[in-house]
Design brief:
With about 325 residues, this protein is α/β, with parallel strands linked by helices. It has 15 helices and nine strands. The strands form two sheets. A seven-stranded parallel β-sheet has the order 1-4-5-6-7-8-9. A two-stranded antiparallel sheet has the order 2-3. The protein starts with 18 loop residues before the first helix and ends in a 5-residue tail after the last helix.
Length: about 325
Amino acid sequence: MNSLFSDYHKPMPILSYPGCEKAGFKVSELSFDSDKQAQVMKAVADRCDSLAAVTLMDLSVEAECFGADVIISEAAVPAVTGVLLKEPGQAYDLPVPKVGEKRSGIYIDAVKKAKQLIKDRPVIAGAAAPFSLAARLFGVTETMLLCYDEPEAVKAVLKKCTEFIIEYITALKAAGADGVILAEPVSGLLSPALEEEFSAPYIKLLADAVKSSDFAVIYHNCGANVSRMTASIFSNGCDAYHFGNAVNMRDMLSASPASVPVMGNLDPVGLFKDGTPVQMKNAVNNILSDCREYKNFILSSGCDIPPGAKWENISAFFESARDFSYDL
């Protein structure tokens, strides 16, 4: 098991953007400033006893490098807009960008600066996984249809996405990252057969290329169908797995190997952003009680906690996790 996961009793939420409030920055400022990204991560680390510090989960970065248009607004996470690949034939001529182009260099530099500021825990980067990146280039609905109608075009893009992501993660690793959260939410909309064909092989190729004893690959999928894909997902070669609140955590734990860390899955919007401290406390106690027999469970949010999440709820999350009794 990767040494990152030595303390199962510490939670590891995907928590970065709410640090803007503590650091005094607008969300839009972070997209172009590695110093501010690192300061936001430090602000979160100073206030939260988490297993690791997590970089900004901006999954528009890789698509922008390929040429996609991105909307960056004052208070929202950057998002891809429009469709880059309008015809299947464009897949074969799509160039693979160089790592460091567009904003990718800023996010690599942010890892290096965060490692200089945060000394008491690992720093985990974020990256889009191949199928989810391909869906941002073709469009989500279009990609689903192309899996049936033009599968070779989809696979051509997947190969290029995988090549780029491997190089991107390698650069994040060289900058000092101790691991990466590999976000593959769009594959969670597929049927199990399509996930096995269009997602799992590329995840395994990627994980095998970048993971090591001191660098962990954490697979994230918040899709609703993941509970039907457990055999494929848990054999894709990643070091740990992170699931969203669309699935039952016990179902995922019961299907997982006992030696593999599995994380999740409190609602990032319903609880962290829109809930109350009392609701958060109850939710933490409920999930820890429900999953206490699984020694490989690590408490987390179900996905990236959004900007504007209430710090009283975040504090209640960590306090409740700290106070929970693990004695059986």
